[in-house]
Design brief:
Length: 177
């Protein structure tokens, strides 16, 4: 079974300042350990970056850049997206065709937006998904804390399965490549 690791939107705008995600340094450290293990096993790592008009995520602007401290490698693939779904109008599905890549390990930012949209679309497209339950984060939404949003999504995703694909939620340290 071929596997790839998707690292979604670990960008500077979500790692400092007004939109800094919950426990971001711990999350980045966890992603770094996960991606290092993937690279050591020859598993493709795909770094996904959100972009849009305006200052925050405009390509080239400081907020658009990958987060300080996020470890990357020259062999990593890059995908730029303009919506929450990392597959929508991007080359991600061509890069990782479902006939060649049956399993996607997913981590990143923000739990309730881009991670959620990508997990659900990957599942719908027929990929088995392993979500690193301790390697995604978000911000408080005014009604619910980030910690509760993360926990709720981990519970919801763990209950999703279909006749063609499944979602498993597990700690990054338990994920095997």
């Amino acid at each position: 079974m071929s596997t790839a690791l998707l690292v979604i939107d670990v960008q500077q705008a979500l790692c400092s300042g007004e939109y800094e995600c919950f426990e971001i340094q711990r999350v980045i450290d966890t992603i770094n350990h996960l991606s290092a293990r993937a690279r050591a096993r020859g598993v493709p790592v795909v770094l996904i970056q959100h972009e849009e008009e305006g200052e925050l995520f405009k390509p080239g602007n400081p907020g658009w850049q990958l987060a300080e401290g996020l470890q990357t490698a020259p062999t990593d693939h890059r995908v730029h997206k303009t919506t929450g779904d990392s597959f929508y109008q991007t080359h991600l599905q061509k890069l990782l065709p479902v006939q060649d890549f049956e399993r996607l390990v997913i981590c990143g930012l923000q739990t309730d937006y881009c991670v959620n949209a990508t997990v659900r679309q990957a599942h719908q497209l027929g990929y088995d998904v392993v979500l690193a339950g301790d390697a995604h984060s978000t911000v408080d939404n005014g009604n619910v804390t980030a910690e509760d949003i993360i926990a709720e999504h981990n519970r919801d995703w763990a209950d999703l399965s279909s006749s063609v694909s499944r979602i498993d939620v597990m700690a990054a340290s338990e994920i095997r490549f």
